[in-house]
Amino acid sequence: MKRGDDHRDRERPSRRTMTTVSRHDFGDDLENPVFSISINENKKEDYGLFVWPCSLILAEYVWQQRLRFSGSRVLELGAGTSLPGLVAAKLGLDVTLTDDSSKIEVLDNMKKVCDLNKVKCKVLGLTWGVWDAAVFSLKPNFILGADVLYDASAFDDLFATVTFLLQNSPGSVFITTYHNRSGHHFIEFLMEKWGLKCVKLLDGFSFMPTHKVVALGGNIQLAEIITTIGC
Ligand SMILES: C[S@@+](CC[C@H](N)C(=O)[O-])C[C@H]1O[C@@H](n2cnc3c(N)ncnc32)[C@H](O)[C@@H]1O
């Protein structure tokens, strides 16, 4: 999954040269986007230093649903290069970007992309299934997670965190995009186990502008999930 996060390796030239900056436009007019977001990526490094297709789809969804997000607090889990959260920040929302607390390089890059795009977001180490003090004060209206359902051994930790956040912030919604590799059964099983309910399920490509779909493949779904406990 990753090439190791030994900080001493960071200065090695072979790793430095792999860094690229990708640009992502939002708006209906191709020639004249409403805003663009630049992302530092390093394809040879960590999963969290690459803009995954699920992230492109979730970012576009946030943009298209911007009126609904208006004035809300947004928390992104496993944010990595953070494109959906950065779109939310460009829309003026209160955004907290999080990733595994042990991924120092990923967390550092999140701060760099905020600076690069001139947005202010909180950046926080949040490892799924770990209850650091900061987790208890988070009260997001929207929890975003792009491509966070890829390692079955982490599903329960992720859903434990998502369930806690949904219960701790009544009315909140978890919006996730994921590769549907083996049907919807696994997510249904997890939702039942954790007292969650899927209130919307979309083909991730159904709302993507044609020019953005060209470079994407696979079967990506977007699910909106709420807690049934206390509702
Ligand atoms: C496939 S990447 C997706 C990154 C980004 N959301 C995207 O779609 O471009 C998965 C992300 O989850 C993070 N992650 C993996 N396990 C985690 C854990 N136990 N706690 C928190 N984050 C984790 C990784 O560091 C990585 O940034």
UniProtKB/TrEMBL annotation:
Q: Which segments carry the region annotation Disordered? A: 1-25
Gene Ontology BP term (one): methylation
An example Pfam family from this entry, by short name, is Methyltransf_16
Q: Which superkingdom, per the lineage?
A: Eukaryota
Keywords in alphabetical order: Methyltransferase, S-adenosyl-L-methionine, Transferase
> Has keyword Transferase?
yes
Regions of biased composition (Basic and acidic residues) lie at: 1-14
Classification via InterPro entries: Methyltransf_16, SAM-dependent_MTases_sf
The molecular function terms of the Gene Ontology recorded here are: methyltransferase activity
What's in the GO CC field?
A: cytoplasm; nucleus
Its family remark reads: Belongs to the methyltransferase superfamily. METTL23 family.
Q: What's the protein here called?
A: Methyltransferase-like protein 23
